[in-house]
Amino acid sequence: MSSAAKPRATGTVPETPTKTNQVYVPPGLPGSLVQVKARYDNYVGGRWVAPVKGQYMVDLSPVNGKPICEVARSTAEDIEVALDAAHGAKDAWAATSLTDRARVLNRIADLIDEHREMLAVTETWENGKPVRETLAADLPLAADHFRYFAGATRSLEGTSTEIDRDTVAYHFHEPLGVVGQIIPFNFPILMAAWKLAPALAAGNCAVVKPASPTPWSILKLAEVVGSAIPPGVLNIVTGPGAEIGKALATNPRIAKVAFTGETVTGRLVLQYAAQNIIPSTVELGGKSPNLFFEDVLDRHDEFLDKAVEGLVLYAFNKGEVCTCPSRALIQASIYDEFIGRCLDRIRKIRQGNPLDPATQIGPQVSQQQLDKVASYVEIGRQEGAEVLIGGRRPTMEGDLAGGYYYLPTVLRGENRMRVFQEEIFGPVLAVTTFRDEADAVRIANDTLYGLGAGVWTRDGSRAYRVGRAIKAGRVWTNCYHLYPAGAAFGGYKISGVGRENHRMMLEEYSETKNLLVSYSPRPLGLF
Amino acid sequence: MASAASPPAGADRPRADRVRATPAALAAIARLRAEHEDVLFYLSGGCCDGSLPMCFADGDLVVGDLDVELGSVGGCPLFLDPRQLAVWQDTQVTLDVADGEPEGFSLPAGPGQHFVAQSRVCPSDELTPLLRGPRPRPAA
Q1: Terminal C-alpha separation, chain B
Q2: How much is the pLDDT for A29?
Q3: What is the mean pLDDT of chain A?
Q4: Which residues of A498-512 are buried (b: 16+ CB within 10 A; e: fewer)?
Q5: What is the pLDDT at residue A20?
Q6: Which H, E and C letters describe A375-430, residue by residue?
Q7: Euclidean distance between CA atoms B106 and A307, whole angstroms
Q8: CA angle A348, A419, B44 (to 5 degrees)
Q9: Domain B19-123: what homologous superfamily?
Q10: For A223-232, A259-268, B4-13, which range has the lowest pLDDT when averaged over its residues?
């Protein structure tokens, strides 16, 4: 992709031109689109509420490693305050007509659109993802997600079944009540939208805990959309997971818990849900294979160009994506030419200040993520993997020298290696070859995970066969990293339990009420 | 769970500790044990902060019958999902401490600090046996 090319990572997102191709001014500086307060409280009951114990923590920007602001370092008491607000609001929100609930969700979407640039710069500054991605993907998709569920909830119908001539079973969807939602750092606003939109659309109130590295973006979102939402329907509490994440997930006052993150905390969330006997959804990541069959090279055309980009998409959002196509499986017969083309493309990736619309890859979200990425590349070297490109930190100049940058990296090795089996969550691709279709499917499925996968071929029959044979919840076929609302997203195997991003989520955020009604005047005759 | 691997016949070399800890990690563990009595570590996987050692007060995470105990440091066990053993068995793990808040529900190693696991590739039969769990595959 040249710097002038439109970002196509999200495909179905309508292109919205930016006002300028100039580098955005960092939040808080004169001329920036984003105002920064020195300190942010929790957002509870439609108001900004100081944490009970009065403690705050510093939120850093990964762009330069410097503080952005302070946010509440909340404790278990603050979760109770938020739950009080949510429980106070839940009956009225549950009784709100679908028309009005949908109106709220559509208003949220409109406000996100109206403040798209401001929120994009906010999220870029806190997470490090390139502003070209937040402008074209994160924010438009978040807005669309609210619209999708506004429509979906209005079109969701109950059922009536004639059990016999005089007996009818009616089925209604009823809200669960108050739900707890724990959001990951990689898409601080979009992942919140994925969880909030269906929960609110189904008539629930939410208490949300953002990830520790990215608490600020969603607070800026609350500044924008808060006025559109009845107080107490949305509550946001920031702080350490061991303190407030646990206090939320274990709390007997939540009716469901949703979590995206790593496997052991996922296991804890499931354990706590079992102890409280409530439903849960967990999305725990993956090690997604991206399969390139030899026919992609049959012609040197636009499709080949698309396939090359499809491999390079491992660097999208600096690899901090649960579905990062982090294992490229290339048919041996085309390996040399195909990887050569891909490495040429990778060499041209522009890394730098993510507030520059020309930047294609920014910093990792935090020092610990950077350290983890570097340690995995070292493990790969020890395992005998060959570094084809990258494999080190870049030298950054000026203010960026304090940021958490890592070069896009490709390791060639074998699928049994740890770098092929474990999620690195960085811009590190593990590449290997396969002989034939059966070999490709075997390697693709030789993983504990099953979240995403990609299949690239000009042969429609093969695309279908392989897509069905891969044990993963989402198989992108001749595309990758599209996240349209309406396409179910979730994991096979240890990648998680449950689905998001689809109308079926309304069921997951609802109870089923069955009214079993007899219209017969006659007694049963048993007593 | 007495299925710990025994040394191969004829092995006379001393085995290296499968799990070690830096002095900083040992100090952090001692502080946590003073506060929480016992703690345990579990190597995570997957999204976000996967691969980091998560630290919990004993009894918080229910350890399953199939969980693998790689070793113990400072009186605290380090567990692993048995399904991950195939790729972790040839690894010597050193627990250490780094700056930054822990993610997930892990206890911090100290104010603003979290635990990390440094890895060194090392054949399993040169490392101390698992304390609990399935026997690693024999070296090829």
Answers
A1: 26
A2: 97
A3: 95
A4: bbbbbbebbebbbee
A5: 57
A6: HHHHHHHHHCCEEEECCCCCCCCHHHHHCCCCCCEEEECCCCCHHHHCCCCCCEEE
A7: 40
A8: 120
A9: HesB-like domain (2.60.300.12)
A10: B4-13
Residue A127 token pair:
């997470």
Number of CB atoms found within 10 A of residue A366's CB: 26
CB contact under 8 A, B50 and A425: yes
Task: State ipTM.
Answer: 0.89
- 3-state class (DSSP) for residue A259: strand
Which residues make Cβ contacts (< 8 Å) with residue A37, sequence separation at least 6?
Answer: A69
Sheet (strand B19-21) strand order: B19-21, B91-99, B113-121
Q: What's the rounded Cα separation, in Å, for the pair A492 and A261?
A: 15
A479 catalytically annotated:
no
pLDDT tens profile A18-64: 555 799 999 999 999 999 999 999 999 999 999 999 999 999 999 99
Look at strands A409-412 and A428-434 and give their pairing: parallel
Tell how far CA A6 is from the center of its chain. 22
Contact (Cβ atoms closer than 8 angstroms) between residue B44 and residue B53: yes
Terminal Cα distance for chain A, rounded: 79
CA angle A232, A186, A289 (to 5 degrees): 130
Token readout for B58 is 């004993």
Taking the CA atoms of residue B123, residue B129, residue B133 and residue B138 in that order, the dihedral angle to the nearest 10 degrees is 40
Catalytic residue list contains A283: yes
Instruction: Report pLDDT for A288.
Output: 98
- The answer on pLDDT for A17 being more than 70 is no
| Interchain CB distance below 8 Å, A423 and B44 | no
Long-range pairs of A222-226 with CB within 8 A, sequence gap ≥ 24: A222/A43, A224/A111, A224/A112, A224/A114, A224/A115, A224/A118, A224/A119, A225/A107, A225/A108, A225/A111, A225/A112, A226/A43, A226/A46
Assign 3-class secondary structure to chain B. CCCCCCCCCCCCCCCECCEEECHHHHHHHHHHHHHHCCEEEEECCECCCCCCEEEEECCCCCCCCCCEEEEEECCEEEEECHHHHHHHCCEEEEEEEEECCCCCCCCCCECCEEEEEEEEECCHHHECCCCECCCCCCCC
Mutual angle of helices A437-445 and A460-469, in 10-degree steps:
30
Question: For an interface test with B, which of A187, A250, A260, A264 has the most B Cβ atoms less than 10 Å from its Cβ?
Answer: A264
Q: Which residues of B touch A266 (CB under 8 A)?
A: 46
- The Cα A483–Cα A480 span in angstroms is 9
The residue-averaged pLDDT of A361-383 equals 96
pLDDT in tens, A70-84: 999 999 999 999 999
A211–B119 CB contact, under 8 Å: no
The predicted model scores a pTM of: 0.93
